[in-house]
Specification:
Helices cover 42% and strands 33% of the residues. It has one helix and five strands, in the order H-E-E-E-E-E. The longest helix has 53 residues, at 8-60.
Length: 126
């Protein structure tokens, strides 16, 4: 024990630093994973909002023909739908803006053919 010449303390310190750095790395990975899942949940919520708003837009289009703006309130957020029609054709230019409860925004534009009930030229802006 007396002939150690300072071997135990440096080895203990180095070993402790390795263990502490490993735990810090694992903690950082855990925080990144939690952030990733939170972002993924927001994106899924935006997609669900968008899907529900488009379904509601299609079903209420005839009753709201005079209105160029519709606002749909959902549990996860708000969706505003704007549309403009061309008097010559039956194609509507539609803009949909989603905002979640956590103020995350998502906007799309598409053309809607009223004769065939088809969505064309889908453009996303995140």
């Amino acid at each position: 024990m007396k002939n150690e010449k300072g071997f135990s303390l440096p080895v203990t310190i180095v070993f402790s630093l390795i263990i502490i750095s490993f735990f810090m790395h694992q903690t950082n990975l855990l925080l990144l994973e939690k952030r990733f899942y939170a972002e993924s949940e927001e994106i899924v919520a935006l997609d669900i909002l968008m899907h529900n708003a488009i379904l509601d837009f299609k079903s209420t289009l005839n009753s709201f023909e005079a209105k160029k703006e519709m606002v749909f309130q959902y549990e996860d957020g708000t969706v505003a739908v704007f549309h403009s029609s061309n008097s010559i054709s039956e194609i509507l230019e539609v803009t949909v803006k989603c905002t979640t409860v956590k103020n995350r925004k998502y906007e799309i534009q598409f053309e809607y053919n009223q004769a065939t009930n088809q969505i064309m030229n889908w453009k996303e802006m995140r």
